[in-house]
């Protein structure tokens, strides 16, 4: 749907994707599309910022898992930042946390990408 | 039938059946005994009719007569005299008074009471006790009687006791039903008090007056400058403990058994009034009935009110008070509205207009009611007695006489009303709170536009019946028909049409001006009543409309200038809804009211008040229950989460718990949407908040869970939903069947071990 847009920002080589509002299937698909296009364009460093995420449902989580798989397939690096406590727990419950580094602040995450470069 | 002779009323009183009132008795006894020392005071006992004032006097008499021997003479001689038993002619009264006095004195001195009331014979007998010769007095009295000089005869008779006494005894006066003294033919109101005045002032003659219409008596006392000499003593129902003792005594003699809790409840329903308890016990024994539970009690009570003892009692009372049939009917109709329907009324003018008759007849009825002690006027302010038995009797009389219903019909509705009313009692404070919230709301609606539907319960329910509240809010945004609310200048509980004019009472009255134009044409008056009855009845609507009409008439309001608004909760009679439409009254349900608050951004007003109460509620308090109906549309589960947040705010839950609950709910809703295949397209949610847990129910009307049901969405979530729910809450139960699935989730609210000290996340 047209009203649903995902904010993104390019910080050097890193694509920062801001997930605002309710991460459900619609929002998830939009995020997935943005990430896929970035990967197709050669970007390998993706940071998902959950600062503005108010709710996540299980479908949203599934899509995030899809995204994790895709990025791993293409040897990319993925990180999360600004997870609320409940969202961090959700990623732990679903096992996503084992594959993705999570940081409190966006700057910390960007620093991690710099090191891994 | 009237008893002509009091004879001390001794045989109508059984001391062993008198319970309670220890404090009153002790005070009265002290007053009586101090009379010996010349520092005796006078007491005015007042209270509603039948509450037990006479019994109290008779018990005092009994106690005075049975004082332990040994005290130095003079002994108190309690003289009981009831003015209700007399004829209204002053000569008859004076004669009767003399006879009574002599008779009781003889009995007091231990003489066997003479068969007749020959005053000469009685005087002679008294002479044998060494008492002074009363014959002079009697001769004078005879002379006045022969001349037909009523006033002099009265003065003579009423002065008589004060010259008696001396070494052996001193008289203590127990004057019952004193208000009747103002009903004597050709004798000015208060004459008896004028005669008694010097004796009262002397302090040597303790005097206890009793009456059920203190207004009459106190005004006489004031006129005579005696008011300061009297202590006022109000008599109400018995204490619960005394009521219980009375039951025990009544039941023992009649071999009646009634469970303890029912006894307590029954005593309360009868207002802890001894005479009702007695009659009820008689009813039980007469009908050979068994009262084993609350329903049994209510049934028998209703029977007694509609055709038994209690009915007969009040019927005779009214027949006595209003011998004229028409007047009696009007009085009952009027009282029913005030006492049973609790039609708020406190002015004389208001009462007259409610009576709806000529001013002369209206005044006659009101004064009759006051005389019988059913209403009390103080500085033009009226107060009506509240007597649960009388209220129900009035209901019966009204339904039977005015609406022509059969006795059993009335009894059935009485039982029903009582059972539901009993359950609703604790909600008393709720009404006050609701009024306060409405008041705030009205103050805020400064020329705002609101959907008309919020005022119209009928059409509101038609359109939104069964739907969830939040869904409705969304729907209302596009509501075309709106109402412009006036800028409210003042909100109070009454409206006076002009200085010292009629006052109209409602729960709220607001006045304001449309379009901020402060002209008479743009004046709008809102009259609001808030009712917390379980069912809104046609009668309630009718009474509201009546007051509105009067106000409109008095104020000369044009059509549309008076906005009539009833707020209610529970349900409404179809008949009531018809009338509301007919009279063009706005009717708003509590749930609509919450939408109002939402619209004005005032939800916190509703919640904040609850919140303050919440910590005071003991553990195990009534759980709070909330319901929500969601349409099966994309993202409506967010509404469920939002409501969970609001519900959790009631219990001041920590953010983590709230977040878990929200997530769990979202998952449960999504499951319901995806798996149920329900035709109805609705998911019902219930949130039950108890002190120790929050329970969430998510119910769909589908065909039950089918594990392998396909669909793009379910493939995507890989079955995470249920797993997550199990992680997020403490207990999950799923019941699934042909008629749908219910997911029950429980989150316990006690502190979880190991979770403390982790640090709670700050507010967002």
Which tags fit this structure?
heterodimer, A: 117 residues, alpha/beta, Transcription Regulator spoIIAA, two-stranded parallel sheet, 44% helix, B: 764 residues, five-stranded mixed beta sheet, disordered N terminus, disordered C terminus
How many β-strand stretches of chain A?
7
Spans of chain A of 5+ residues with little confidence (pLDDT < 50)? none
Structurally, how many domains make up the residues of chain A? 1
Shape of chain A: globular
Supply the CATH class of chain A: Alpha Beta
Percent of sequence in beta strands of chain B = 15-25%
Q: What is the CATH H-level superfamily of the largest domain in chain B?
A: P-loop containing nucleotide triphosphate hydrolases
Helical content of chain B (DSSP H or I, runs of 4+):
40-55%
Global geometry of chain B: elongated
- Figure out the total of helices of chain B: 29
Give the distance, in angstroms, between the N- and C-terminal Cα atoms of chain A: 36 Å
| Structural class by helix and strand composition of chain A | alpha/beta
Radius of gyration of chain B: 34 Å
Count of folded domains of chain B: 5
Which topology of chain A does CATH recognise? Transcription Regulator spoIIAA
Summarize the largest interface: chains and residue counts: A-B, 19 and 23 residues
Note down, in words, how this protein is organized.
The complex is a heterodimer of chains A (117) and B (764). Helix content of chain A is 44%, strand content 26%. Chain A is of the alpha/beta class and 117 residues long. Chain A has a single domain, classed as STAS domain (Transcription Regulator spoIIAA, 2-Layer Sandwich). In chain A, the strands form 2 sheets. Chain A has a 5-stranded mixed β-sheet. A two-stranded parallel ribbon of chain A has the order 3-5. In chain A, a hairpin with a 2-residue loop joins strand 1 and strand 2 (14-18). In chain A, helix 1 (25-40) runs parallel beside helix 2. Chain A is globular. Chain B has 764 residues and is of the alpha/beta class. Chain B has 5 domains: 7-234, Rossmann fold, CATH 3.40.50; 240-310; 324-405, Winged helix-like DNA-binding domain superfamily/Winged helix DNA-binding domain (Arc Repressor Mutant, subunit A); 430-599, Trna Endonuclease, Chain: A, domain 1, CATH 3.40.1350; 618-748, Histidine kinase-like ATPase, C-terminal domain (Heat Shock Protein 90, 2-Layer Sandwich). Chain B is 48% helix and 17% strand. In chain B, strands 2-3-4-1-5 form a 5-stranded parallel β-sheet, with helices on both faces. A 5-stranded mixed β-sheet of chain B has the order 10-11-12-14-16, with helices on both faces. The radius of gyration of chain B is 34 Å and the shape is elongated. The N and C termini of chain B lie far apart (80 Å).
């Amino acid at each position: 749907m047209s009203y649903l847009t995902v904010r993104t920002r390019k910080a050097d080589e890193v694509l920062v994707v801001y997930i605002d509002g309710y991460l459900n299937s619609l929002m998830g698909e939009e995020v997935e599309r943005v990430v896929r296009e970035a990967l197709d364009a050669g970007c390998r460093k993706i940071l998902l910022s959950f600062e503005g995420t108010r709710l996540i449902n299980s479908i949203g989580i599934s899509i995030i898992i899809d995204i994790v798989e895709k990025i791993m397939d293409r040897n990319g690096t993925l990180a999360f930042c600004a997870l609320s406590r409940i969202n961090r727990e959700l990623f732990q419950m679903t096992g996503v946390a084992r594959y993705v580094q999570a940081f409190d602040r966006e700057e910390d995450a960007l620093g991690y990408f710099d090191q891994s470069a | 039938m009237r008893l002509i002779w009091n004879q001390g009323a001794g045989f109508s009183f059984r001391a062993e059946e008198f319970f309670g009132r220890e404090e009153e008795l002790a005070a009265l006894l002290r007053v009586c005994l101090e009379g010996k020392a010349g520092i005796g005071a006078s007491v005015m006992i007042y209270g509603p009719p039948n509450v037990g004032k006479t019994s109290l006097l008779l018990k005092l008499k009994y106690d005075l007569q049975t004082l332990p021997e040994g005290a130095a003479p003079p002994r108190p001689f309690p003289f009981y005299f009831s003015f209700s038993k007399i004829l209204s002619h002053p000569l008859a009264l004076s004669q009767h008074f003399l006879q009574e006095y002599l008779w009781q004195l003889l009995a007091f001195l231990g003489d066997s009471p003479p068969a007749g009331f020959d005053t000469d014979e009685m005087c002679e007998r008294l002479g044998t006790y060494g008492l002074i010769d009363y014959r002079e007095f009697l001769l004078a009295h005879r002379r006045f009687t022969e001349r037909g000089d009523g006033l002099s005869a009265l003065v003579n008779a009423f002065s008589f006791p004060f010259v008696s006494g001396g070494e052996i005894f001193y008289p203590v006066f127990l004057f019952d039903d004193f208000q009747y003294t103002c009903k004597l033919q050709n004798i000015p109101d208060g004459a008896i008090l004028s005669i008694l005045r010097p004796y009262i002032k002397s302090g040597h003659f303790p005097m206890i007056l009793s009456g059920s219409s203190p207004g009459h008596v106190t005004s006489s006392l004031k006129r005579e400058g005696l008011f300061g000499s009297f202590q006022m003593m109000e008599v109400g129902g018995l204490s619960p403990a005394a009521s219980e003792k009375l039951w025990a005594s009544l039941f023992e003699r009649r071999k009646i058994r009634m469970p303890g809790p029912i006894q307590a409840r029954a005593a309360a329903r009868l207002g802890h009034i001894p005479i009702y308890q007695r009659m009820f016990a008689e009813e039980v024994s007469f009908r050979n009935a068994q009262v084993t539970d609350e329903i049994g009690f209510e049934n028998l009570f209703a029977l007694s009110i509609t055709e038994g003892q209690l009915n007969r009692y009040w019927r005779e009372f009214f027949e006595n008070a209003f011998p004229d049939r028409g007047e009696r009917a009007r009085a009952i109709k009027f009282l029913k509205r005030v006492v049973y329907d609790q039609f708020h009324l406190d002015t004389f003018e208001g009462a007259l207009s409610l009576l709806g008759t000529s001013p002369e007849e209206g005044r006659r009825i009101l004064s009759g009611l006051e005389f019988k002690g059913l209403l009390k006027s103080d500085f033009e302010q009226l107060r009506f007695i509240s007597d649960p038995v009388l209220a129900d009797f009035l209901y019966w009389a009204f339904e039977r006489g005015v609406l022509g219903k059969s006795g059993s019909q009335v009894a059935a509705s009485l039982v029903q009303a009582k059972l539901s009313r009993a359950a609703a009692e604790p909600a008393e404070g709720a009404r006050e709170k609701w009024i306060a919230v409405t008041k705030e709301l009205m103050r805020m609606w400064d020329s705002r536009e609101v959907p008309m539907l919020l005022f119209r319960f009928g059409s509101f329910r038609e359109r939104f019946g069964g739907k969830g509240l939040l869904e409705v809010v969304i729907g209302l945004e596009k509501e075309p028909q709106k109402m412009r609310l006036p800028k409210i200048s003042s909100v109070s509980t009454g409206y006076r049409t002009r200085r010292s004019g009629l006052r109209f009472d409602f729960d709220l009255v607001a006045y304001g001006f449309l379009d901020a134009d402060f002209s008479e044409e743009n004046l709008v008056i809102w009259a609001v009543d808030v009712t917390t009855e379980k069912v809104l009845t046609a009668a309630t609507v009718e009474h509201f409309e009546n007051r509105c009409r009067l106000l409109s008439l008095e104020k000369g309001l044009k059509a549309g200038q008076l906005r009539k608004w009833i707020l209610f909760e529970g349900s409404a009679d179809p008949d009531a809804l018809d009338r509301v439409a007919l009279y063009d009254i706005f009717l708003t349900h509590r749930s609509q009211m919450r939408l109002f608050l939402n619209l004005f951004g005032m939800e916190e007003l509703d919640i904040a008040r609850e919140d303050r109460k919440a910590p005071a509620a003991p553990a195990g308090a009534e759980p709070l229950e909330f319901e929500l109906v969601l349409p099966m549309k994309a993202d409506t589960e967010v509404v469920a989460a939002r409501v969970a947040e609001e519900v959790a705010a009631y219990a001041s839950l920590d953010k983590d718990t709230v977040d878990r609950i929200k997530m769990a709910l979202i998952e449960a809703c999504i499951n319901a949407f995806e798996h149920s295949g329900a035709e109805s397209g609705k998911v019902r949610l219930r949130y039950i908040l108890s002190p120790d847990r929050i329970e969430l129910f998510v119910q769909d009307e589908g065909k039950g869970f089918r594990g392998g049901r396909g669909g793009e969405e379910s493939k995507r979530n890989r079955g995470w939903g249920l797993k997550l729910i199990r992680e997020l809450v403490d207990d999950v139960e799923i019941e699934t069947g042909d008629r749908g699935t219910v997911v029950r989730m429980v989150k316990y609210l006690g502190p979880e071990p190991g979770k403390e000290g982790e640090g709670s996340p700050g507010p967002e």
